[in-house]
Amino acid sequence: MGINNKKINVLQLLSSLEVGGLEKLLIEFVKASKEDVTVVIMNNLIDENLKEELLKTGCKAYFLNRKEEHKHPKYLFQLLKIIKENRIDIVHSHNSGSRMWSILCKIIKPKLKLVYTIHSSVIVKNWDIKNLFLNRTFMDMNIAISEAVLNDCVQNNLKAVKIYNGIDTEKWKQRLDNDGTFTIINVGRITHQVKGQDILIKALKECKDKGMKFICNFVGGVYGYDTNSFEYLKKLIEDLNLSEDINFLGNREDVPELLARSDLFILPSRFEGLPISLLEAMAARLPVIASNISGSNELIEHGKNGLLFESENSLDLAEKISWLYYHKEEMERMTQDAYEYVKGFDISIMCKKYRDLYKSLLNK
Length: 364
Description:
Helix content: 40-55%
CATH architecture of the largest domain: 3-Layer(aba) Sandwich
Number of domains: 2
Shape: elongated
Number of strands: 13
Strand content: 15-25%
């Protein structure tokens, strides 16, 4: 039987299943995949709603319920048993912890092929000599989710191919009329050192001082990531007299509806890989502003399908918000261009490229 017709058994390996872009991406991939998928979640950090959503896909899902940092070898033996029972050819890991478990499996089963997706632009930059050595030695291929990540891989002599993350472009609802209040939305975990919510808050202070009326909703996990960040942001909002203008909505299951009832999406991140939330906002026909950093600036062509502001510069962000606020026709034009652009990031395209990569590895 030729490799093109052979059933390829791939295990998707994650450390945890908490609410986040990576975890949601995995579930969308399983939904869109036209083949049987095996998923293993190593740790006991599980969001029950995501678990239920994953199980509804009908995939083979295993939850090993390992306590974080627990080093008992039984988890490795459990993982190896799953690999044997499902005749796994390829283990595809998605974060640093699961990458290490996949490497341990390959040490014992050298014929296993390993794939690792690098989901952030800072991962390779932060690797020490040991991590670079492990990757070069054991990974058959890395998936870089942006051009910047690919460049980091090339500079460090890591085998890599660029495959953009995808979304279900049909899932996102067309914008609806709200109550007349200009509504700004940000979607991302509440970790301002990475996601930059403090930059947006300071920009909104400038906008309010100039007479702009708005509501801003922050959607994303408050606890479980960085509780100090949440407390810092709440105090910043109080100090700037913005308590009546900004809401923290926490993790939400109705993000498509929230986007549909918003007027502007802002992503002020300091670091990104390829931001799924930005693609989702474009698919929802929502005008977008993002910081001019790698990942975001790979998606936004300034002035055509969105606006970019100078990273860390809250005054520049305030100017961009104000410009869109008073230029509704330009805002709608960019929105349509963004919607046409994002069709090239449909999850089906990502699935096909994954499949092609898996086949090429087994052909070697």
